[in-house]
Amino acid sequence: MSIDVGLTGNIASGKSMISGMLREYGAAVLDADSVGKNVLANNVEGALEQVRSSFGDGIFDGKQLNRHLLGNLVFGHPDLLKELNDIMVPIMTRLVANEITILHRTSTVVVLDAAILIEASWQNLVDEIWVVKASKNEQLERLMTRDHLARDEAISRIEAQMPLAQKLAYADVIIDNTMDVEQTRKQVEMLWKTRLQNR
Ligand SMILES: CC(C)(COP(=O)(O)OP(=O)(O)OC[C@H]1O[C@@H](n2cnc3c(N)ncnc32)[C@H](O)[C@@H]1O)[C@@H](O)C(=O)NCCC(=O)NCCS
Ligand SMILES: Nc1ncnc2c1ncn2[C@@H]1O[C@H](COP(=O)(O)OP(=O)(O)OP(=O)(O)O)[C@@H](O)[C@H]1O
């Protein structure tokens, strides 16, 4: 029997690191950030044109979308983030659902790595929800380092997301990533062995 795991948690909490570990054990991983990037890079269903007509030419360098500028715009303004989500989420939902079906042709375990899993109602696409826990300070430090963001840019990205406490209410499994990487790896190894390995 196959299984779909929705791996969520807030920005820079460690989802990609954990999905990378699950991939090493044998899971197929679908990264929602990559799906979103593909939608805009390839103008899937006219998304890029919709973004230009909603947000204007100021976030483009010629024909090229400046993702950093769009991020600075929407993450500071909930109404604008909603406008972007209204364009992106329906398109991404179709792609994510389709991709999960395709991945199941070759893998029994599929992990959907998505910060917006609950916000996008993708909990309906998976069997279990795993939530990664990190403190806001850890998110902030890791985000500034990873994405070379200024403190205020990083804070606005963190504050734009559904609070962790709300996500935890949906959790079948909680992964504590507040310690060092080895402590997290031990939890992931145990979860693989007890919940996924024999699928
Ligand atoms: C606003 C955009 C252009 C900023 O691009 P940028 O390259 O700076 O960031 P990137 O896409 O790598 O996202 C970084 C992180 O931001 C957070 N994030 C991204 N989009 C959202 C969103 N709509 N709501 C809440 N958090 C988000 C996630 O934690 C994500 O991992 C981009 O994030 C985007 O197109 N977002 C809408 C599509 C989407 O929801 N993607 C995320 C799926 S999890
Ligand atoms: N326990 C940890 N200790 C130290 N650094 C960590 C730990 N966990 C993750 N990191 C680092 O923090 C950064 C953020 O982790 P990661 O990219 O996995 O987060 P994410 O949840 O996938 O973020 P996003 O929502 O933006 O996709 C990475 O540079 C990662 O190497």
From TrEMBL:
Subcellular location as annotated: Cytoplasm
Binding-site positions, ATP: 12-17
GO MF, any single term: dephospho-CoA kinase activity
Primary location class: cytoplasm
Reaction(s) the record says it catalyses: 3'-dephospho-CoA + ATP = ADP + CoA + H(+)
Pfam families assigned: CoaE
Group of enzyme by EC: transferase
Biological process annotations from GO: coenzyme A biosynthetic process
Pathway annotation: Cofactor biosynthesis; coenzyme A biosynthesis; CoA from (R)-pantothenate: step 5/5
Keyword line: ATP-binding, Coenzyme A biosynthesis, Cytoplasm, Kinase, Nucleotide-binding, Transferase
Any GO CC annotation of this UniProt entry: cytoplasm
EC number: 2.7.1.24
Family: Belongs to the CoaE family.
Function: Catalyzes the phosphorylation of the 3'-hydroxyl group of dephosphocoenzyme A to form coenzyme A.
NCBIfam families reported in the protein's UniProt record: dephospho-CoA kinase (TIGR00152)
Record's protein name: Dephospho-CoA kinase
